[in-house]
Structures are given as C-alpha cells and as structure tokens.
Amino acid sequence: MIVQTQCTIFKKNLLSGLENFATGTTQVYKIALYTANASLNADTLVYTTSDEVVGTGYITGGEVLTPIPPDSSGSTAYVSFNNVSWLSSNFLCRGALIYNSTTNAAVAVLDFGSDKTASGTFTITFPTATATTAVIRYS
Prior knowledge:
mainly beta, five-stranded antiparallel β-sheet, 8 strands
C-alpha cells in the first residue's frame, strides 16, 4: 500500500542537518516510480527497488529532481521541485518516492490515487512552491 506522506526519517534528518535543498548543494534528490504492490509510507527509511516500475523509458532509481530554492511565508517554510518527465515511456505506476540519492534516505511518498499508464511522455507536475501548496511544507 502506498500512503502519501513525508517520511519520518526525513524529518529526523532535517533536524540533524542532513538534508539541503539550497541552490548549489551537493545533495542530489531523485524521484522513483512504484507499482500498486509497493509498501511506501511514513516508516519508509530508504530508496528501494522492491516493486519499482519496470518498463520502456524508465531507469531504475528514477529521475533527478531540481529543487526550487527553499523559501518561507509567515510561519511556513517550504520547498518544491521542477516538473519531471520520462520520455518515450511505456509503464504502469501508482506512486512515487522522493529520496536523497546521496544518502538513499527517503523524503516523501506520493500516492497518485490510482494506477497511471505511461504511453509516450509521462510527467509529474509538482504544485507551485508556496506556503500553502508546495510539496514539502513546515509551519
């Protein structure tokens, strides 16, 4: 089962200074796609290949994400990412794991709500980077 959430290990790593989304960081973030059989939730610790998508146009480990520099508004700090696409794709997926590929630590789980069929270009459109819509927010 895939449960959309921020991973607990990510919150711990933030408080330990192990995550960095700032421009010029050496941290590399990726997004990997998963089938409906995957078990991803708040307890997910690291990137895993278990039940990761296999198909044309998809490479194990997923795609590199480009963070939009962190910002804040009022009492909320937030970060989001530029949209990411898989070209010439042919696969089925149900959700995704955002993870720090430098450490393999899990960041967040995305549940697409239903199986999505990729045929051609498959794009994940991230929400606008604002205090009320960014994919990662703390207040």
